Amino acid sequence: MTALSLLQLSSPTLPVGAFTYSEGLEALIHSSVLETERDVQCWLEAELLRGCVRIEAASLDLFVQDFRRWIFSSDLSCMHHLLELDSFLMATREAAEVRAQQRQMGAALIHLLEQMGYPLPEALDLAWPAAWAWASLSLSVPPQEMVEGYLYSWVANQISSAVRLVPLGPTRAQVLQHNLMHQIYEQAAQLLKADPLELWNAGVGLSMAQLSHVELYSRLFRS
């Protein structure tokens, strides 16, 4: 059942609106920074090694620990700690479009979990990483698989965006996803042991692309 739950959580049909966002990828392609399949793969590899998604992934198990203590021990300090961590992650996102994306997707996932019978003990406005952690805890997804799933779903959404913007067909997209599997697995193992407050983000190019996306004359995506 755990594997099936993870498949559901990382499915592109999850009704959270992920397909409407490119997180700056559209701006990079418009500016000809990314033009080929190889460009996209190199970019994704760099983000997995040095990007903001790593900080979010490293925070997931901390969220789970806070949720557990809050729910099972009625420790309100843990609720305050997870809200602080949630705010910290939002502060690492410079673009207003991406911050709005994180909040919208988080709210959609929390709502879905309520419909599935896993409501939060108290209504909270949580962004996507914290909501993903709550989903993983609710569905009994183990820590390693939780982080792997988070990275996998992020990569899959970026590749899905690239399919609509780059000369990249669905077959080559699946090859690209396969090529990144080992790196996703290795990064998940490392990030599970990492302190998100000690990690750094070198994705300056992506941050600039996210900020400039709002200025595009024509666009397909919301970020």
Summarize this structure briefly.
The protein starts with a helix and ends in a 10-residue tail after the last helix. It is mostly helical.
3D structure, described in words:
- By secondary structure, the protein is mainly alpha-helical.
- It has a single domain (2-211), classed as Urease accessory protein UreF, CATH 1.10.4190.10.
- The protein contains 11 helices and no strands.
- The radius of gyration is 17 Å and the shape is globular.
- It starts with a helix and ends in a 10-residue tail after the last helix.
- The relative contact order is 0.23.
- The model has no long low-confidence stretch (mean pLDDT 92).
Count of discrete alpha- or pi-helical segments spanning 4 or more residues: 11
Largest sheet: none
Termini Cα gap = 34 Å
The CATH homologous superfamily corresponds to: Urease accessory protein UreF
Poorly predicted tracts of residues:
none
The overall pLDDT average reads: 92
Class of secondary structure makeup: mainly alpha
| Tally of DSSP β-strands | 0
Assign an overall shape.
Answer: globular
- In the CATH hierarchy, the architecture is Orthogonal Bundle
